[in-house]
Amino acid sequence: GQNIDQPTEMTATEGAIVQINCTYQTSGFNGLFWYQQHAGEAPTFLSYNVLDGLEEKGRFSSFLSRSKGYSYLLLKELQMKDSASYLCALNTGFQKLVFGTGTRLLVSP
Amino acid sequence: DSGVTQTPKHLITATGQRVTLRCSPRSGDLSVYWYQQSLDQGLQFLIQYYNGEERAKGNILERFSAQQFPDLHSELNLSSLELGDSALYFCASSVQGDTEAFFGQGTRLTVV
Questions:
Q1: Among candidates A40, A87, A96 on the partner chain, residue whose Cβ is nearest the Cβ of B43
Q2: Residues of B in contact with A97 (CB under 8 A)
Q3: In sequence order, what are the residues at sequence separation of 6 or more whose Cβ sits closer than 8 angstroms to the Cβ of residue B71?
């Protein structure tokens, strides 16, 4: 099976940088996704890491280290609209996504 | 708009009843996935279909079943409903393995 851990909640200030961590235990996986989910809405795709290293996409970057069982999502220049849950998910094969319970990010002025 | 359509958006029903949730994937997507999200809980993978065939199964109860039709739309059937089945049910679709999955807006099921 798979086990995914994320902090339950984080707070940060507008304009700041925040790093949301995701640690996992799994026997194997194809890649790791990050999704954003506003309350009551559908998750939306942020990034997908297959290889180790950093993937940058505008204000958001995602990092993966397979040897350490670790990923993080880095959000820069935080905006109020970034207040949402951030979900880490393992692609265990043929798009069977196993999600963590998510990290609720609260951005304050 | 992700291109994935789920109906109905909201559903209120009584315990013991049966409901059917419907999902139309994005045009061209062969894979359909169903997820359950209870209040303040993470997304739980239920089941995946690929081109009409069941591909993977997660923590899906025996009271729940699903299918994918030749036109690639999918239905999730929930029977003998219990209060604990109240949740958001999301459908997602993707072209095939190892590509981004797009989520529908979900069906909010309330069992009373």
A1: A87
A2: 33, 43, 45, 92, 101
A3: none
pLDDT tens per residue, range A61-88: 999 999 999 999 999 999 999 999 999 9
Mean pLDDT value across residues B52-62: 89
The predicted model gives A42-54 an average pLDDT of 93
Q: Is the pLDDT of residue A95 over 70?
A: no
Q: Is A1 in CB contact (< 8 Å) with chain B?
A: no
- For residue A93 the two structure tokens come to 């094969």
Q: Please, are residues B45 and B91 in contact by the beta-carbon 8 Å criterion? A: no
Provide the pLDDT confidence category of residue B26 given band limits of 50, 70 and 90.
very high
CB B71 within 8 A of CB B5: no
A26-30, A56-60, A81-85, B65-69: range with lowest mean pLDDT: A26-30
**Residue B109 has what pLDDT?**
97
The string over B52-69, giving b where at least 16 C-beta atoms fall within 10 Å of a residue's C-beta and e elsewhere, is eeebbebebeeebebebe
Residue keyed to tokens 């699903």 = B66
Answer yes or no: do A45 and B96 touch at CB < 8 A. no
Would you call B31 an interface residue with chain A, using a CB distance cutoff of 8 Å? yes
Q: What one-character DSSP code corresponds to residue A80?
A: G
What single letter denotes the amino acid at residue A8?
T
Sort strands B10-13 and B107-111 into parallel, antiparallel or unpaired.
Answer: parallel
Q: How far is B100 from chain A (nearest CA, A)?
A: 7
Q: What tokens were used for B26?
A: 């994005």
